[in-house]
Write a structure and sequence with these properties.
Helix content: over 70%
Structural class: mainly alpha
Largest sheet: none
Order of helices and strands: HHH
Shape: globular
Distance between the termini: 47 Å
Radius of gyration: 15 Å
Number of domains: 1
């Protein structure tokens, strides 16, 4: 697995963790997904594959994309109402 694959997997883990909050998943599911993403980030840090600043950028990017997609959903709901 190459560097790009590792970062893409991290992005998917973060997306799943964020999405679980808004889907209304059970608390245990949200915690499990969050812990999986946290553990993956810690493993990347421990292996020296990424730095903290890079991880912060990746998390911020995933959150930004989520917020942008949420804005589209809110706009669709408002237009339908």
């Amino acid at each position: 697995m190459g560097y790009e694959d590792l970062i893409a997997k991290l992005g998917r883990l973060l997306e799943a963790s964020i999405a679980a909050r808004y889907r209304g998943d059970m608390h245990a599911t949200k915690v499990r997904l969050s812990a999986r993403a946290d553990g993956y980030m810690e493993a990347l840090l421990d292996a020296g594959l990424v730095g903290r600043d890079e991880l912060l950028e990746i998390v911020a990017d995933v959150r930004r994309r989520d917020a942008e997609s949420s804005d589209d959903v809110v706009a669709d709901i408002a237009a339908a109402g």
